[in-house]
Amino acid sequence: MKASIIITGSEILTGMRQDALIQFMASWLTSRGVSMDEVRVIGDSPERLVKAVRDLALANDLIIVTGGLGLTPDDTTHRAVEALAASGDVRLYPEIENPVGSARGIDLCFDHGTRVVFLPGVPREAHAMFRILALGLNESAPEAVEITVFGLREVEIVRRLGDLAAACGYLPRDMEVAVVVPKALEQNVRRILSPHALEQESLSAGMAALLRNRGLTLATAESCTGGLIAHIVTQLPGSSEYFAGSVVSYSNEVKTRVLKVPQEVLFRHGAVSSQTALAMLKGVLDLTGADVGIATTGIAGPTGGSDEKPAGMVWIAAGGKEDHVVRDFRFGFDRQGNKMAFAKTGLFILRTYLHDTDVRSH
Known about the structure:
The longest helix is centred in the last third of the chain and has 22 residues, at about 335-355. A hairpin with a 4-residue loop joins strand 13 and strand 14 (about 325-330). The protein is α/β, with parallel strands linked by helices. Helix content is about 35%, strand content about 25%. The relative contact order is 0.09. A six-stranded mixed beta sheet has the order 2-1-3-6-5-4, with helices on both faces. It has a five-stranded mixed beta sheet with strand order 11-10-12-13-14, sandwiched between helices. Strands 7-9-8 form a three-stranded antiparallel beta sheet.
């Protein structure tokens, strides 16, 4: 089976918006044994869309079109579909349900067999609808699953998987990578990528399961991450069961006054140090009464660094008051990327700590 993708949107062509669909759809199509032939990005024009569809229909079994699908009859896609239908060589199938929005998808087929599916351009809606659609494609293909990986870039994942890499798709998202894997290869892929292959769909979901299963509560003391870890953790419903709270101790004054970090520690070692990270961890656990915690102190950049402590450096302390780990890392992203890397790495370090110990609620 051969497929192509058409992305409609003048905002993409003018640089006003970044595409968020091509890699997602191509990865899932590949995992279903569908061969990708071409991707086209065109402006919001019904005439161009009709021409692109007819052109690609000559050499493809499936065409996925996204964008221009609104609720009014004069939207780009509706007008293009009307023109295609009027030619008499296509037939329309029932509309595709949208589980997270209002605009339904359009499903049609040319008499010579090429299927064309039109989906909304809103990423959240297109993702949800395409997942359902993909499961029904190439039914002879093996079932696929997503394995979320943290701590390895796509190129390293591919290198480690070797011959298995070609059968998988790769979807980066906020420092994590969802690897779309044929079900039969799941255990092999997990073994090869361990300990970076997560048990759940995200770091935060895995952390939630661990904390719930062990009856533990979590608190965070955040300097360079500015509350981002707390934000990630509390994105999940029911997080109040295990998340006690957070202190964003951006200034040294808050570190000493609220978290009780000794001034001597800050004077001798600096705010970005293993000693300060550990003192922050102990302080937030004393303050909140939580069982385990994460503390971060670093330099998100792009300014504020030095030769000894460059931008992108972070110290992370994770664990309990008596038993914990403290590690430093250096990243090379922009400010936003560094903050996300700091936060996700903090969650990963605590996950590893919990896996390596038998810490449970007393």
